[in-house]
Amino acid sequence: METITSRQNALCSLIRKLATSSQTRKKEGLFLCDSPKLMQEALAHGIEVNTLVCTQGMTMPQVGASVRQVEVPAEVMQSISPMQSPQGLLGVCALPDATLPQTLTGNHYVVLDTVQDPGNVGTILRTADAFGADGLLLTGNCADLYNPKTLRASMGAAFRCKVWNCAYAQLETLLQESALPMYGAALRDDTIDARQADYTRCAIAIGSEGKGLSAQMLTLCEKTLKIPMQPHCESLNAASAATVLLWEMFR
Fold this sequence. Notes:
34% of the residues lie in helices and 22% in strands. With 251 residues, the chain is α/β, with parallel strands linked by helices.
């Protein structure tokens, strides 16, 4: 067990960058797993751990001898953790392989189109995992899956559920090769009540918080779905809309 007491240590600087910069995460091939709960989930699902950092008195999880283990004072942990109230344990982990498959062989998928709020992306992933979706596809300018806020909101689902990033053209090819229809949460002439859709095998597309589904995404949707609600309400936020449609898909 090493001891680091300086906030300017190279490891501390790296951790702060991993917490705030998606570019650093991609460049280094690393992400930050902050909290005992997330570390437990990561280890249980085969995530490769590079370094563990804890405060005095915290119990380290069982890891191999190759994992660097570091103890820091509480004030140093406060300076490197993205949490307002750090829980005393964080890990630097390797980004897992997320190569886009050639076909989607499952029955139920969620596609997010420029959903930029990490809390919404994490919440949708958690809900998708709870209701048995086979995977999540991120298109457009979505929040980074490995943003600490996304990971916390997912409550470990980021390690249990398949997630891929793809461009619109890749998504179009993937849907065609998989013979998978996609339904969008949007209004147009072919919109049907969400309770009447056939969810036997499909993907559902959820758009950005402010603009909804892009025109490019709508061209890929075979149908669009409307969630019934009170007339004075125009829409639900992305996570709420996804929850309703995932429930309909699940039941």
